[in-house]
């Protein structure tokens, strides 16, 4: 059942759909949530764990199956013009940065896997801010994938689909990890999930009822389809270079394993020894990148334990340490992200950090429900009051409620 609070937006979407597609009506709605990553940043593409939860904010795809190989998409946001294409295993790309690539990515991957498929007419709407580190891009990829699978009456197991869509999204040019697709598909209402890779697994922990995770947007876009893409991809390369150098410098009785992956290296030595070895083997900035990756991994496990025992203060301290590491070692923060983090802490948050890739986008702060009003007020007064907020304040400053993963509903 679709909650009734959404029914007005749904009527509006159906009316927009009719206008876009010659008076026809959608038959189904495919929904996929965005996510806020609580801790574990830039670890996923190194095969290391992350700890996100799905948001109630989501991408909605109203669709109607077709009985040919054509796909037509319209978008409720006029910033994104209509896109149509033919389903095939080699769909020509739009220009880098074009939203059409996030439609083509899952379609091409599913045709490659399943052979010829029937298309659909679809309208995309979203309650997620674009390019904000809340994974609107992967939510779109997942909602489209589920709509196309439904159209063709095919089921793919959740974790398999998540892995395939993570690979599929690289069609857009970002060499991303697998966190966003996994949480958008596999999340459970009320839970955060530690995600492990190779093989993909989700381990869920209930978010304590009095904990509040606040999301605050800098209102600077982190366009991973644009300027931030090169910086993001460069970080990934640097992690690979650091790993390569650690290994190339091995001695005959070296403590590091023979086939190095980050997870094997991390489990082969205590953290302090590993960092000392890295200090001897890596030049800047590779040493700093490496240090972020290995310390952040430890923080993920400690944070999940802290949440499990309801230890808000420890979770907050880990968030603070994560932000400091992302700011100084990984160099993906910004003046505005640092400012929001500072304001949240001054307002009484137990901890705060940038969330997602960085380079703009959002922070996430944690507080007890008793301190929520003060933290919200500190952010509102210190940041949003003297800036122009494009829409409503609650679209850029809100409490994140852990939600379910993607679903398809008949209309
Ligand atoms: P966002 O914040 O949505 O741009 C990106 C990657 C993740 C992960 C984080 C950093 C994609 C689709 N998403 O997320 O896989 O690496 O950055 O932790 O590339």
Name the helix and strand elements from N-terminus to C-terminus, one letter apiece: HEEEEHEHHHEEEHHHHHHEEHEE
Count of beta strands: 12
In DSSP terms (H or I, runs of 4 or more residues), the helix count works out at: 12
Distinct compounds present = 2-acetamido-2-deoxy-1-O-phosphono-alpha-D-galactopyranose
Uncertain spans, ≥5 residues at pLDDT below 50?
Answer: none
Helix-and-strand structural type = alpha+beta
Helix content: 40-55%
Cα Rg: 21 Å
% residues in beta strands? 15-25%
Instruction: Please list the strands of the largest sheet in the order they lie side by side.
Output: 4-3-5-2-1-12
Cα-to-Cα separation, first versus last residue: 10 Å
Question: Could you tell me the mean pLDDT?
Answer: 95
Shape: globular
The main β sheet shows up as:
6 strands, mixed
Describe the structure concisely for a colleague:
With 411 residues, the chain is of the alpha+beta class.
């Amino acid at each position: 059942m679709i909650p009734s609070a959404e029914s007005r937006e749904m009527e509006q979407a159906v009316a927009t759909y009719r206008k876009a597609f010659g008076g026809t009506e959608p038959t189904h709605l495919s929904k996929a949530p965005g996510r806020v990553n609580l801790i574990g940043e830039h670890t996923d593409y190194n095969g290391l764990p992350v700890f996100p939860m799905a948001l109630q904010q989501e991408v909605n795809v109203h669709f109607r199956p077709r009985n040919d190989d054509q796909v037509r998409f319209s978008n409720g946001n006029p910033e994104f013009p209509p896109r149509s294409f033919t389903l095939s295993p080699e769909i020509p790309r739009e220009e880098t940065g074009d939203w059409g690539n996030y439609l083509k990515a899952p379609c091409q991957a599913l045709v490659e896997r399943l052979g010829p498929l029937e298309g659909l007419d679809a309208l995309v709407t979203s309650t997620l801010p674009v390019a904000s580190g809340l994974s609107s891009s992967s939510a779109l990829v997942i909602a489209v994938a589920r709509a196309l699978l439904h159209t063709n009456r095919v089921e793919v197991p959740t974790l398999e689909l998540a892995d395939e869509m993570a690979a599929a999204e690289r069609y857009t040019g970002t060499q991303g990890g697998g966190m966003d697709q996994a949480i958008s598909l596999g999340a459970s209402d009320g839970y955060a999930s530690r995600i492990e890779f190779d093989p993909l697994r989700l381990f869920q922990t209930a978010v304590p009822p009095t904990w509040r995770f606040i999301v605050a947007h800098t209102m600077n876009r982190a366009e991973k389809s644009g300027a931030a893409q090169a910086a993001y991809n460069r970080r990934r390369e640097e992690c690979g270079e650091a790993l390569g150098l650690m290994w190339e410098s091995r001695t005959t009785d070296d403590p590091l394993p023979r086939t190095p992956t980050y997870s094997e290296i991390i489990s082969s030595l205590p953290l302090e020894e590993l960092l000392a070895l890295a200090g001897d083997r890596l030049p800047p900035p590779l040493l700093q990148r490496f240090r972020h990756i290995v310390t952040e991994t430890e923080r993920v496990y400690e944070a999940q334990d802290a949440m499990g025992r309801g230890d808000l203060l420890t979770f907050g301290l880990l968030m603070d340490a994560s932000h400091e590491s992302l700011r100084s070692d990984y160099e993906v923060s910004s003046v505005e992200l640092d400012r929001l983090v500072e304001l949240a802490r001054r307002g009484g948050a137990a901890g705060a950090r940038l969330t997602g890739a960085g380079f703009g986008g959002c922070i996430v702060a944690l507080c007890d429900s008793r301190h929520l009003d003060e933290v919200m007020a500190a952010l509102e007064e210190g940041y949003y009051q003297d800036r122009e907020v494009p829409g409503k304040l609650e679209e850029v400053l809100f409490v994140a409620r852990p939600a379910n993963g993607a679903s398809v509903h008949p209309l």
